[in-house]
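Protocol step 4 of 6: record predicted structures for both targets in the notebook before any analysis. Target 1:
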Amino acid sequence: MTVLSATPDRENLTLVLVAEFAAPPEAVWRLWTDARRLERWWGPPTWPATFTLLEPAPGGSARYFMTGPDGERAHGWWRFADLDEPRSLEFEDGFADEHGEPATEPAPSRTRVVLDPRGPGTRMTITSSFASAESLEQMLAMGMLEGLSLAVGQMDDLLVPA
């Protein structure tokens, strides 16, 4: 399993997930910036994602939906703030309505992904920051900790050399 830890920090209003992969940062980077690869792991296994837009550049956006086992769709969006290929990316992350337009509730979070080389592999740290304790608790209650851990756990299979 790639996930080493997934920890909410209520004092700092963050959720931090750390994972390691037996692949270089460039390979892990592609899993974040190529829509077809991203779809294969973003979202827990029972809620796969479909990206309808992915513009990984400062000011760029992403639009996607995850489809649950009963066909229910949960829509989301990202707004990219910073990208430093293949070291880090940062984006605002929120829910959307059925047309892909950003919803105001729950409040969006800020996500920073750091890819550190570790020998021939990579340590990935995902830090999600929340505007308030209520926002953090709401996302934890919705299963974000478990869902993100399951999603990241799918990345290993996509990094196996062909």
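Target 2:
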Amino acid sequence: MQRYLAVLTILLLLGMVCVRLLLMQRSGIKAMKFGEIDKKDFLIPPFALFYFYLIFAAAFHLPTVSRQQFFESRIASWIGVLLCLAGLMLLLLSLISFGQSFRVGIDPDQPDKLITTGVFAFIRNPIYVAFGLVLLGQFLVFPSWIFLVYLFAGIWLFHRQVAREEEFLRMRYGEIYEEYCDRVRRYL
């Protein structure tokens, strides 16, 4: 059951982001800016697609890299499901709080306003925290070395992107952003 819920988490996560992108596109806003500033980002989607395949492979017993697990624990697996659900809820709250300012990547042309309300009043980067919770939850459901590697790689990539975005936000909003940083934590 937990394995199927982990797959559902990935589908819902992708669905929420894709629906938001489509809705914004219908409003005339190009929200997909990923890879436009740093061309090396083109390396990320193949690894993400492979990750999605690994989730499906682990849940539905498809061919995979390894079936070796660090541990077998129903409790850890259910905690993983709860972390995935918490990540989905945080992502949903983030998308709602973002409103029309949502972008995938940095948009130097039409950056919109700085969002400091809703979930952003408590966490400066709730979407990355949400993704991190999902990755951690997925690892607890599928406790293998490959999911552990993806967990650490994902956290590193999220932090790298946060640093880029914060640099842009400092340049764009100046003192207003600095005051926001003083009030609200980067992650948790």
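Step 5 preliminary note on target 2. The two ends are 30 Å apart (CA to CA). Residues 2-183 form a domain with the Four Helix Bundle (Hemerythrin (Met), subunit A) fold (CATH 1.20.120.1630).
Proceed to step 6 after PI sign-off.
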